[in-house]
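Supplementary Methods S3. Complex input for the 4'-deoxy-4'-aminopyridoxal-5'-phosphate-bound model.
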Amino acid sequence: MIREFVKSFQPYKVVEGNYRIWLDKNENPYDLPGWVKEEIFEELKDLSFNRYPHITSMPVREAIADFYGLSPENVAVGNGGDELISYLVWLFEGEQVVTTPPSFGMYNFYAKLNGIPVVEVPLLEDFTIDGHAIAERSKNARVIFIASPNNPTGNLQPEEEIIKVLETGRPVVLDEAYAEFAGKSLWRLIEEYPNLIVLRTFSKAFSLAGVRTGYLLANEEVVDALYRVKSPFSVGVMTMAAVKVVLRHHELVERRVAKIIEERERIRKAFREFTYPSDANFLLMRLNAYEFLLEKGIVVRKLSGRLDGHIRVTVGRKWENRELIEALREFLEVRGCG
Ligand code: PMP
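Predicted complex, serialized as structure tokens:
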């Protein structure tokens, strides 16, 4: 009954168990404080739960547009950035989806799901993109995905290389899911490059992974096209209320981002030899320590392919990072490298 094509997809791997410390999904380790949740609950009281949400999510697009000083016509929101990626692979003319592995898996996932060929232009040795190589191979691309900071390598991509890709005129999705931790974003370039789509999310710096909201900033024409084909009611009234409230407390988000950056650098310093520099809320480590950490009750992400023998570790709360550092020190001692 089920198509072979569907069976060719792996089921989602759910890591379940009595683990103490979860550093595997690049989440924000800090939940919203109670007083911010109370504000959200207050907003919820006045909402009509029996009615569908606004069909093009205008209330929350306006709030995001105000935050950036843009027009709501430059903003689209989705049920997580993932939902937006699912549309971005088939919105534009052209043939292939271009990706730069090792990078975020959902670009390839949605391309495959839609039967779209993928051209892979690997990252260079230092995990930066080769703008010239991407441009060369994107002549007939329908869309090019570049993550900056990149997941799972953590590095920002050089602006001049991104510009080389933008100059092709082909649609470029610059995935800035972790931009707040880098303190740098190229969103302002949407005014100069109508082919630039900047993808952002509330899942990371804003602590709203469970609420599910991603958004993109782009030219009006792209946003208009997206809303012609997007699932009509995928962003619910509760989600929109939560986002609006959190946007009012940006200073809280900034303080937490600063804390996470400080902790990130503390972990990196402890294992400088095995850890790549990061502009995100996670670290790529050249340590084959996945199973060892799991036994200690710490869940991280095990990587494969070109990053075989590496782990990706989300920066957690201070005590979690302390335990991680202790466990990794022990791992190195056991291996005789300590
Ligand atoms: N882009 C990148 C690079 C990511 O790592 C993630 C989340 N892991 C997303 C986009 C999507 O996040 P969300 O769907 O939670 O908005």
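Residues 34-247 form a domain with the Aspartate Aminotransferase; domain 2 fold (CATH 3.40.640.10). The chain is about 40% helix and 15% strand.
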